[in-house]
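> tool_call: predict_assembly(chains=two)
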Amino acid sequence: MENQIEIKNLSKRFRQKRVLEGINCIFKNGIYGILGPNGAGKTTMMRCITGLYSFQGTIEMNGKKIKKTPQTEIGYLPQKFGLFPELTVWEMMTYFCNLKKIPKADQYQVIEDALHMVNLISQKKTKISKLSGGMVRRLGIAQAFLGNTKVILLDEPTAGLDPEERIRFKNIISNMSKDRIIIVSTHIVEDVEACCDHIMVMNRGKKLFMGTNEKLIEYADGRITELKAGDLTQEDILFVEKSYLQDGEKTYRVIMKHPVEAAAKSNVEDGYLCLLKEH
Amino acid sequence: MYVLHIKKIIRNPAIIIPIIFMFALSIYYLFFYSGGYESYLQGALCKLLLAVPYVFFCFLFISYEIFHSYCKNEVHESLCTNRISIKYQRYDFYILFVLDSMITLLFIAYQIRFYYGMGYSMKPLIWYSLKVAIIFWGLVILLGIIIGWGLSGIQNKLVGMSLLLAVFYLFDRPFLQLLMGISQGRLPACNFATLFCIFTSAEPGAITDTYYLMSAEHVHLFRILFWIFLMLFLLFQVAKNKAAVLWGIAAIVCLILFFQPTGASYSLPVINRFDRWHAEQFYYDNAYTGDSIVSTKTDMEDFNITAYDIDFWVDDILNAKALLKISDRNLDQYCFTLYHCYHVTNVVDQKGEKLRYQQKGDYLTVYPSNGELSEVTIEYKGASQYFYSTGQGIMLPANFEYYPIAGKRTTFVYNNYNTCFSREVAGHNAEFDVTVYYKGDLKVYSNLSEKEAARKGKYRYIRYKSTSDGMTIVGSPYLLEKEIDQVRVIYSQLEHDNNPTRKDNMEELRDFFETLEELGHPLYNKTFIIAPENNLQNYCFSENHIFNQIFGAKEQAIQYYKYGKLYDEPDEEDRDLMDQAEDMFQ
């Protein structure tokens, strides 16, 4: 089934500070990555979609206002995700099942499937206090997928995870995207590049871009070059991305203000940074 | 869901240890520790009231710990996404409520066990214990739970714990004393201060007397409900829950009801105008200091009241409609004494025409419109702090001006030697036709002859009719009537030392009756109403009844009937000192 979230003119203000400003976008089945620096408004937008915050504008899911959407259709992994340390993994999942009003008869199967999915079935009797940070995060993902969820919102899901856990997370997400809208908010470009079909870039509460990875890469096409230390004085440099040693000499990967002839191949990160620095 | 929440609580040592500790300590304190409290009736209540602040704080802390776990473990956001806001915490609240009910049941069990142990097994006493348990124990703990819940949202635990202590201070005695210091005896400020009196006094004075016991009237219920609703309002308001409006309205209603006039007679842990022991002193300190003297009458009346036809409605306050027949018809003004807390609302003459009147302090002056007044009907309502008349009990002795008395009389004697209500009765015989309407399970008695008793609507009533020089009305669920040596004796069965059924008291009583006969004022076929023990310094001698305790009654009767003395007077040494002081000033 095709699901759709339509956001029209979404704005949010905390007292005098405007955090979101006139955001318009449509999410359909698939994985969306929301990229933006800290303070861009990613978490606020997520919280508006979950209904945690009141807002100006409209958010509709499948034609219905988001506040009238049954709670069971939205799964959410917040940025700061915690659990009751006194309960076991299984008890905690039962707790979430009860909150999502999943019938008692179905709970066993639903929990088992979710724990299998995040590879935590062997830990089901372990107390939450004994789990590692990565395991808690995976459990958070599992709870977000519980029930008949049509939208999954994952706020900074890979924060604090080691590389192996991050790969596992990407695999889980990729496998679960069928018939669902998955929105992943992060400032780590690699995560988005690896598993998202679409990217939305935000900065200072505004939407800067929404489209496929390729479209974002196009922003930096022909503008990425590698310069030696002596060439860094050029006025055409927009942003110095990183530096590394090449043939024993320090080399810089640079985004230029205008296309150059001997440009290097650009990637999503280049496109993202190019977009941020130009706006 | 309950099971998961219980597991969550049981497995958290920071919560379960205080709970176990509190219950163990409560059981030990209630059932295995005497502390000298259990030798007298008020001991049970005093012992329980003493523990209330500590149990309140325990629940405050436990509640804070339980609800703070959501904040501490950062589970709020993932739970709130399920659009249930603070509702998901309701299971914890229910568990705490069950714990509150359990400890309240312990309290009730202890009280009932105590009363049975002392030989009191009346049904009204059990109901009273239940009421006290709910108001002063169950609801106070519930308030602690809700405050703990409200403060649990504060992230910083140090700040949270500091606020818990601040809340405790808010309801404890030092803050009340501070409020009283600020209020400087002003009536509205004193009344406002009583709003913070959540931990009722644990001193023996908390029990008014054995007619009334400790006050458990509506005013206390409104006070605690106000705080509960206010805290719920704040809690739901912060959570942006629409139910906040309902809680807010409920809090305002309870606050309004709390400030309504009440006849509840209670003791406070600080000096306050609403404390029964200090109410009169406050009033007479401010209004009558110069006028209060030791004398029987300050101004002889110019007229007599020959008959009274009074209807009393005993509710939260006393409502009365008194028709008085007057001996002298042609005076310019008629002055009556009526206790200042009874506010006159209407005065009409024999034709039903409204009369001009002026009520100032304890005195009411009525001005006849046509120069002739044979009958006057006075409607009034109000309540005294000391002599109560509510659904919980009635104590209206004949020496107290709760119905209009002819002339100006001193109502309260307040000098270096006496601080008491005046002990004289009206002094003239009059025909009394009095009906007392009351609610509840009171047993109402009077020195007057009972003519009729029945029910009218929600009220029960008793009609009395006879001639007397004064009228005493007493009422309590615990009163009994007994005839001893042809004297009708009325007493509270909760009395211990002052109980006429005890062998030594019976002998004392017979001796007292014989002395009265020797003094020429036999009490045969008359009534002796045994005043409760706490009714210090108040007694009266009327032609057809005596209202007094057993002990000391004989000596006071000798002083009164032989020497005409009703008050303490300075002895020779005191007089010398007073003379010396006078000389020094001159």
